[in-house]
Amino acid sequence: MALKTQPDLADIHVVGIPRGLLYHRYGPLWETFFRELGREVIVSAETDRAVVEEGTARSVDECCLASKAYLGHVASLVGRCDAVFVPCYASCDPRAGFCTKFQAAPDLVANTFRDQGVRVLSCLVENVSKPKEVRRAFAEMAARLGASQVLFKRAWKAGVRALEDARRAKAAAQEETLRLLAEYRAVAEGDPTGATERPLAILLVAHPYIAHDEYLCGTIVEALESMGTTVLFADETNRARTYKASFGFTETLPWVINRELIGSILTLQDQVDGIVLVSAFPCGPDSMTDDTIMRYIQGTPILNLMIDAQSGTAGVETRIESFVDILRYHQRGGYVHG
């Protein structure tokens, strides 16, 4: 049945997408979808100090660092597009919801930038675990943009395919890295001289909008890699597998991203030498799950890092260096338990 939605957004030709929050989870879908609808898409530039400072100035102190950076990205799009795409992802599924900031984002952006005439393009995804509901939300938005059903179906299929391809590529790359690590370790363990050093693998556990933001987390990744470790990203593990695995940790956790991160730890724990938990201050879901992870996960060393807008890099780098040194000392038999 054809949607009866009025095309009241048909004059939107240039769509701006902030490079923050759920962009790092659904970016390929969003970009491809709008382009297939015939819209020009502008994605804000990579995060930098100016973006964070601009967002911080527009936020209340209680907002997490990632939310502050997001508002900075929105600010950078003002005057460059006809509307800023800020979807509303609600939390109707008690086992696959999001932090409430994703539900409030459209209203937050509209009110924060009301004096600058920023137009917000949005859609309501009530339950992300039900593909039909997600599709319906985007179909209604496409109809408001004046797209026909035929054009919507083509754009939706292309967007979903782009997202699935991106996810499969990341999961496959991780599997290949794990395979190579296993091979290198076998060579090191089979060297009777002990001269071959066994490679260290670190699982970096953080929300995608932290883990893959060069400004927010790049220092941590660079420090780990500069010490010769191989960094694996928890959010790049097969999501269906990690979501299922998370129920071995808890039945009641309501946040889907945290579920996937925990499931990745449970899936890869025996294949890595250490875990680095990274959280943006003051993330509510992480404040609960990170402490639980530290208590629950046994047998794998964990470093817990909190980043905020005021943090310098020296302290973080020193903690990482100490953590890796301890892992190498342990690897060489430095710690012997009775």
From TrEMBL:
Gene3D superfamilies in UniProt: 3.40.50.11900
Domain DUF2229 residue range list: 15-235
Highest taxon listed in the record's lineage: Bacteria
Annotated coiled-coil segments of the chain: none
TM annotation in the entry: none
PANTHER family in alphabetical order: BIFUNCTIONAL PROTEIN [INCLUDES 2-HYDROXYACYL-COA DEHYDRATASE (N-TER) AND ITS ACTIVATOR DOMAIN (C_TERM), BIFUNCTIONAL PROTEIN [INCLUDES 2-HYDROXYACYL-COA DEHYDRATASE (N-TER) AND ITS ACTIVATOR DOMAIN (C_TERM)-RELATED
The protein's name: Acyl-CoA dehydratase activase-related protein
Source organism per UniProt: Adlercreutzia faecimuris
